[in-house]
Each structure stands twice: as C-alpha cells, then as structure tokens.
C-alpha cells in the first residue's frame, strides 16, 4: 500500500497543533512547528491557485485551508482535491488507452449511415473523435424494462453460456435474486464455464465474508474493486465502480441501471415498485463492453485476460443504427461532456429520466437555453429519493429550470432509477451514469449511445408510459414551498459535488 504524502501531512499537522496548544515544549520548538505547519498550508494554497479553478471555489478553499486548522486541510484532500486529473489511476488510464487503441487498429472503418440527419452526424462525429472506443453498425440492441423482464432474460442467457461469464456490479446482494444467479453460475462452473465477478467494495458492503467464500468455493473467481481497508489512506474510497456489466461468451452483453438485489425487482417495502431500464447487446459492440470489463479485471487482480484473443473476438450481427459503448471514470471524466454535447445538438426535444439530478453548470445552462429556444425539455425524477441530501439537492435546481420553461415531472408509482436521455426521438443514451457530479467526476461508468436505432423507439414509448405515473410540477405551486424546504435545498446543494 502506498500512503499518499497528503495523509502524512494531516498526521504531522495534527501533531504540530497538539504540541503548540497542549504541551509545555519550549517556545522555539513551538515556533518551528508553526512555521512547518504554515509551510504545508501555503504550499497547498499555491498548488490550488495553479489549478485555475473557478474563482469562488479557489477563494473558498483558500479560506478553509488558512482559517480552519487541520480540519480544513483534511476536507480539502478528501473532497476539494480528489486528484481529478487522474493521478490515482495513472496506470489504469495507460492500460485503457493501449487496449482501445489496439482494438481501433483492428476494426473495420465505420461509414456514416445515409439515414442519419445532420445533427445526428454531428454528434456521432464528436463521439468518434473524443472517445477511446468505436461506433458499431454491426450490433443489435434490445431494451429491457424493469427488473422482472431484465433478470428473466439474464438468467436465460446465463444458462446458455458455453465458454465464460463475466459480471461486474456496483451492488451485488446475496439475497433471493443473488442466490438464484449464484446457483446458475455454480452450475455453469461445474460444466466447465469460466465465471468471474467484480463487485464494488462500497456498493456491495453488505456482501459478507461468508457469502464471498461461498462464491469462491463454488469456483467463481471474485474480486472487489477498490477495497475499503486502505482506501482512507489513498483517497480511493471516494472513487467507486458504478458499472453494471455482464458479458457471456463474448457474444451477449448486458448494461444498464439494474444492480443485483430484490429491491430491483420491486420487492423492497421501502422503495416499492422499481422503475428501471437495461439493455441486451448482441454483436460487435459486445467486444468493446467486454474490453471495459477486462481492463477492470486487470486493475483488481493483475490478470491480463485481454492478451488471449478468444476474449476479444468480435461477433458481428446485422445491426440497426449506430451503437457506441463509452466508458468513463476519474481517469477520463468525459461523461458530462458527452451529455452536454448531446443536449446541445437537440432541435426539437430533450427528454431526461434520472434518479439524481445534480448537474454541472454547463448542462444546467444548456437545458435552460434549449427551453427558451422553444425546444421541449422534459425532466423526470423520483418523487421521493433514497437520501435527504440527494432529494433536496435535486430540488434546488428546480426554480431556475421552471423559470426557463423546462417541464418537470416526479415519478409517483415507486422509485425511478432509469438513466436515459432521448434527443429529438432519434438519439439516446442509456447506461449506468446518473445526471450528477459524482457520475461525471468520481465514478467509473459505462453508457451506450444510440443513433438511428429502433431501440430508441422503445425508449420513447417507455418514457411516455412512465410519464402517466408522474406528477407535473407547476411553477406557482412549487414557489409556495416553505422557507424550511428552501433552507434544506440550499444546505443539500453544498454537498452536490459528493452526492
């Protein structure tokens, strides 16, 4: 374990403060401690200024570092710094780039389908230029609505596996659903199928050591992503793997919003009905989705499975439109840019469904401007969220959106967890990324971007069906909310960068 120098500084600064305030050491000793403490703070402030952040944030962190002893520095390294430039994941970033560049060299060039219109072509060209991954015309997609439909399809496809099954989840519970999947996976192992599972150490915190041993003893190779044991000493505890991926034999892939747990089937009394969306992939793009898993597998355990050609052998099928698998994380931080580019390409409509709406300023501005231009902008969020801060932080964005003419809807039937953006009814993205700063900056995510695909019609249909279960927020009624609610919104928004 490599302990970062910032953590050492916290310990040293705490020791200095203790010596100055609570001991009878000679004055000259205390003067040395104060000088060294000041040196650490001033050098940190200097590095902060060189990052050229927004002025307000720079001044805020400068004041906190100078006027709040030790605690200010602690908050800075764990929430204000977070090494957004990817220093914590330098080796992973290099591996990702090397593999995707190799895949790019081996891939046939993609011709722009004639059916795409100008704004689709503009966005598709953007993605092709700025991402490490490739577009595919030789991929078929199927939209799966909610947990029952998704996991029936997942279980059916798992049972058909012949060579390998690779799974990656933010939350993997060993409840009824988890045990059903484990029974299938155990049977496949006994048949000679390789089974590998990556789970996020924080998201799957409830997964007991006994449960992990059961999986390992059954022959499943299982590894955590960013274990929490030493995460506090490396800052990595704040970066989580939010991906939900299944790849079967390199031919079938699943990705979307659903983790493994009975709540995703609507069987949790707290959440009730669970509204979500997943995607089944067949064809060439499965290779790219699998590459995302294989790179994460190398990161968690060191095995370079992608050096074996059988794991990255593309299996093209007759496709429908363009499919683009795009991975993001703290080493790339591009998902927010992709959402912004997609939103600003809209001509007629922008429909967004997300459980957490805590966007950056660019996306907020883009939505307001689009609405003022006469573009229909619809935002669907849950009526009740799964946390105080996420609930009120989301609401804090409502006033400016309502004033611009954005249509706001809150889902009433249960918990809305789908993550979908549909532009003009002919472009869409679906995957694991929420419309929030954590998904943009801190989480490892993966999304599909669809252009000219028949699956977009299904997403439109599902969105319209879900709208029937929503309450539209009207400006006059919303503005009458109490002062207490407004204070909660303002307080929650202070933590928007970590939610």
Automatic annotation (TrEMBL):
InterPro entries per the UniProt record, alphabetical: Cardiolipin_synthase (IPR022924), PLD-like_dom (IPR025202), PLipase_D/transphosphatidylase (IPR001736)
- Domain named PLD phosphodiesterase: which ranges? 237-264, 412-439
- What top-level class of enzyme does the UniProt entry assign? transferase
Protein's cellular compartments: Cell membrane
Q: Which PROSITE patterns match?
A: PLD
Q: Which residues cross the membrane?
A: 7-23, 29-50, 59-78
Q: Does the UniProt entry include the keyword Transmembrane?
A: yes
Keyword annotations: Cell membrane, Membrane, Repeat, Transferase, Transmembrane, Transmembrane helix
Q: Mostly located where?
A: membrane
Which EC number applies?
2.7.8.-
Q: Which domain of life is it from?
A: Bacteria
What is the designated name of this protein? Cardiolipin synthase
Tell me the organism. Answer: Neobacillus driksii
């Amino acid at each position: 374990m490599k302990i970062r120098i910032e953590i050492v500084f916290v310990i040293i600064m705490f020791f200095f403060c203790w010596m100055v305030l609570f001991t009878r050491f000679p004055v000259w000793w205390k003067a040395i401690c104060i000088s060294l403490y000041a040196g650490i703070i001033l050098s940190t402030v200097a590095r902060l200024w060189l990052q050229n952040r927004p002025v307000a944030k720079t001044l805020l962190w400068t004041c906190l570092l100078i006027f709040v002893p030790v605690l200010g520095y602690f908050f800075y390294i764990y929430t204000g710094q977070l090494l957004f430039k990817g220093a914590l994941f330098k080796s992973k970033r290099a591996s990702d780039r090397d593999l995707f560049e190799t895949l790019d060299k081996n891939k046939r060039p993609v011709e722009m389908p004639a059916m795409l219109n100008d704004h689709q072509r503009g966005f598709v060209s953007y993605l092709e230029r700025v991402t490490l991954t490739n577009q595919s015309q030789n991929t078929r997609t199927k939209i799966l609505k909610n947990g029952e439909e998704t996991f029936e399809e997942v279980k059916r496809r798992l049972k058909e596996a012949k060579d390998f099954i690779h799974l990656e989840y933010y939350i993997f519970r060993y409840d009824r659903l988890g045990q059903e999947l484990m029974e299938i996976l155990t049977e496949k192992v006994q048949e000679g199928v390789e089974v590998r599972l990556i789970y996020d150490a924080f998201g799957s915190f409830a997964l007991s050591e006994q449960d992990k041993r059961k999986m390992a003893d059954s022959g499943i190779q299982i590894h955590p992503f960013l274990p929490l044991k030493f995460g506090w000493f490396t800052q990595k505890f704040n970066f989580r793997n939010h991906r939900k991926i299944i790849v079967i034999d390199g031919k079938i892939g699943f990705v979307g919003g659903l983790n493994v747990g009975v709540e995703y089937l609507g069987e949790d009394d707290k959440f009730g009905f669970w509204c979500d969306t997943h995607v089944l992939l067949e064809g060439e793009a499965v290779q790219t989705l699998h590459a995302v898993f294989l790179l994460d597998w190398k990161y968690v355990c060191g095995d370079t499975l992608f050096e074996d050609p059988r794991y990255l052998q593309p299996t093209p099928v007759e496709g429908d439109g363009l499919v683009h698998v795009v991975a993001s994380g703290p080493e790339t931080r591009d998902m927010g840019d992709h959402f912004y580019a997609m939103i600003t390409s809209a001509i007629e409509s922008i429909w967004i469904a997300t459980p957490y709406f805590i966007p950056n300023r660019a996306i907020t501005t883009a939505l307001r401007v689009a609405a003022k231009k006469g573009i229909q902008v619809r935002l669907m969020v849950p009526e009740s969220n799964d946390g105080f801060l996420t609930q009120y932080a989301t609401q804090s964005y409502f006033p400016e959106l309502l004033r611009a003419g954005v249509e706001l809807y809150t889902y009433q039937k249960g918990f809305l967890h789908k993550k979908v953006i549909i532009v003009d009814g002919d472009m869409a993205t679906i995957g694991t990324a929420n419309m929030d700063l954590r998904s943009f900056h801190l989480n490892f995510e993966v999304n599909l971007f669809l252009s000219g695909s028949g699956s977009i019609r299904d997403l439109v249909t599902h969105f319209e069906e879900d709208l029937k279960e929503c309450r539209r927020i009207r400006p006059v009624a919303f503005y009458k909310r109490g002062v207490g609610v407004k204070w909660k919104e303002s307080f929650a928004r202070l933590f928007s960068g970590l939610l």
